[in-house]
Structure formats: C-alpha cells, structure tokens
Design brief:
404 residues; mainly alpha; 15 helices; 73% helix
C-alpha cells in the first residue's frame, strides 16, 4: 500500500525554516565571537562577515534553478543539509580567514536557496486564510533559529572538543529538516518552467512584468519598515551605560522573545486590514517609537526597551512582508520559488543600505543623528507609499468587478 503524506500543522511547517536562522547565527554571532577570542583583528572579522552576507540580497539571480528540473522539496533537502555542512567546514577553518570567508559565503548562499525553495513550496501548501499564520511561524523559524543558534552553538563549540563541537552544530541545523519529510510535493509538477530553460526565460520575463511583483518590489525596496537599528543598537550599549553582560542577555534572550511576540501579534491584526496598509502602520508606529527614544534618558533600562521594541516592530514587519509574498504565490505556479526569492531580496535591500545610512548619521550626529535618520526616512517612505497603495487597492477592486 502506498504511503500517504499528511500535511503537518501550519506552525510546524513554518518552523521548518529554523535551519535558515541557525545558519545566520553561525555567521553573524558565533564566528565573530570565536575569531575575536583568537585575537583576529576587528577589520578582518568585519570583512569576513560582510563578504558572507552578500548572498542575502543577490541569491535571487540564481534562484530560477529552484524552478527547473527537480521539485522544490528536493532542492530544500539538498540546500538545507549543504548549508549545515558548509557551516561545519567554516567552524573548522577559523585559522584561515580567507578560506573561512569563502565557506561562509557558500553556506549563506545555500541557506538562502533553501529559504527560497522552502518559501515557494510552503506558499502552495496552505489555504489563503492560513497564509498570515504561515508567515508568522516562518518568521519565528528564522528569528527563533537565530536566537537558539547564538546561544546553543557557542555552548557546543566551547563544551565539546574539536571537531565534535562543529559537527554537533551541523547536527542541530539538520534536525528541523525532519519536518519536511512529512510534507507533500508542491502542486506544480515537472511541468511549466521545468520543461526547458527556454520556457524558464519566457516565464521569468512574465514574472518581472507582473504589476503586483513590481509594486511589491518598489514597496519593499524603500526604507519603509527596515528597522535597521536592530543591527546597530547592540553595539551601542555603552551609550546607555549597559554592561557587556546585559547587552549579551538582551541581544540573545530578549531579542528572540521580542521577535516571537512581534511575529505572533501580526497575524491577529493583518486579518483586519489590507496587508500592505498594515505594513505601513507598522512602519509609522515603529518610527514614532524610534523618535520617542530621543526624549528618554540613556539608562540600561531604556537600552533594553529600545532593543526589544525595535525587534518587535521588525519581526512584525517581517511577518507582514512574508504574508504579502505568500499571498502573491499562485498554487501551481512554475516560478513560485523564484518569485519568493526576488521579493525576499527586495526586503533585504533596505536593511543593507539603511545600515550604512544609520552609520553615517551616527558619525555626524551621534545616537541622536542615527535615530532621526532611521525614523525620518521611514516616515518619508510611508508618505510616498500611502497614496500609491490606496490607488492600487482601488484599481484591483475595479478589475476584480469587471466581467471575465
């Protein structure tokens, strides 16, 4: 008798994204800590990390391979373990920064392709009214994996002799992939874009000409709800008189809890309004919160409030973005993974350039300058997008009312 595949609950499907967050923790938290402990200069550590992060917003260039020849389930099972294996190889190559940078670049490339294959696959597995819940747990998988990895990976690396610590990290990254075994294939078979690369090129042109895709890219590429301060506040604890130990606890446990809270709150609110307008609401309220920090004293308590608050808003924005992306994926779409990768890359772009903008503003005006730049540009983006989103909504309603 043939085995029937039973679709896991939505929350479990979302948690299959844990390897993506776990891999990010290796590159952004664990490796810098381990290199610093070896006395590697900070510019070298920053160079390794920056090079490794490039795939985050460039992987969409190779994402079309996820929609050619094999199923997305197959690609997820290939790139998930591969990213873990490359992280292990990187952790075993700490003595050679050049080799380490290449391995981590390859690890995050594999992790990003795993994330895109998974996103395209999961987007066709749930009903429309479950998409915001899937987006919520998909975000929790990323954020939770990052938080777990930041703490657990270091415990494994310090507590076990080489190479067993690194191998244990790889094992932890592979464990959530068990969830995928129970999930059915995507609705699209080997047809569509998988027929040939000629068809793939045709479908890619159609995808990039799709007005919804172009609108969404424009919306995500603006600095609307990037909350890039989450990546720099952790290094500014001294501005608030926060000790190194307190910064570590807040950045690990506090930020993870904040991310889960923001991700779980968002679906309860998305159902009450257009997801794009909800995205603008998060941006506007979050910018107001950022500006309120200008009026608060610089104490350790305010540091904790600032870092946790910014992460709550960012995780809610991530959930809104994922909901919009999942809703854009049509069941049976031959380019589901590519579409997920393109739109996901658009969300990564403002985080990258706003990191540089906030840094320049900090250099010119200290913490005050950074807060003003981050919140001010977000509010400007909201002002630009609000009339456009209202117009798009009216146009879509009018087109939906037209006879077929």
């Amino acid at each position: 008798m043939a085995r029937t595949e039973v679709t896991p609950p939505v929350w479990l499907m979302g948690l299959s994204n844990l390897p993506y967050g776990l891999g990010g923790a290796v590159v952004l938290i664990n490796v810098p800590q381990l290199l610093a402990a070896r006395g590697v200069p900070q510019p070298t550590i920053a160079g390794v990390t920056a090079f490794a992060m490039i795939p985050g917003f460039l992987v969409f260039l190779v994402a079309p391979i996820l929609d050619v020849r094999f199923s997305r389930k197959t690609y997820a099972f290939v790139f998930g373990p591969l990213s873990g294996a490359l992280c292990v190889a990187g952790l075993l190559s700490l003595g050679d920064p050049s080799r380490l940078a290449v391995l981590l670049f390859a690890a995050l490339s594999s992790a990003a392709l795993f994330n895109s294959a998974l996103g395209g696959w999961l987007g066709s597995q749930v009903a429309k009214d479950e998409e915001s819940r899937l987006a919520s747990w998909f975000t929790i998988g990323n954020i939770g994996g990052f938080g777990i990895g930041a703490i657990l990976n270091m415990a494994l690396m310090r507590g076990l002799p080489a190479p067993f610590g690194a191998l244990a990290v790889g094992g932890v990254m592979a464990l959530p992939l068990v969830i995928l075994a129970a999930m059915p294939e995507a609705a699209a078979g080997i047809a569509g874009a998988r027929e040939s690369f000629a068809n793939l090129g045709r479908d890619l042109r159609a995808l990039l000409a799709n007005k919804f895709v172009l609108r969404t890219i424009a919306m995500f590429a603006l600095p609307t709800a990037s909350f890039a301060l989450t990546n720099s506040l952790g290094g500014l604890g001294n501005e608030f008189g926060a000790s190194e130990q307190m910064v570590s606890i807040i950045a690990g446990v506090g930020v993870t809890v904040a991310g889960v809270i923001g991700s779980l709150l968002a679906p309860r609110l998305i159902g009450r309004m257009n997801p794009a307008l909800f995205y603008l609401c998060i941006a506007g309220v979050g910018a107001a919160f950022t500006l309120s920090l200008l009026l608060m004293p610089r104490t350790p308590l305010i540091f904790a409030i600032a870092l946790i608050g910014e992460n709550i808003f960012q995780s809610a924005a991530f959930t809104a973005e994922s909901t919009i992306i999942f809703r854009s994926i049509v069941n049976g779409s031959p380019l589901a993974a590519t579409q997920f990768a393109v739109l996901n890359a658009a969300t990564a772009l403002p985080i990258t350039y706003m990191q540089m903008v906030d840094g320049q503003a900090y250099g010119a005006g200290g913490l005050r300058g950074s807060l003003l730049a981050d919140a001010g540009l977000s509010l400007i983006a909201c002002a630009i997008l609000y009339p456009l989103i209202r117009r798009w909504a009216r146009t879509d309603r009018t087109e939906a009312m037209q006879p077929a």
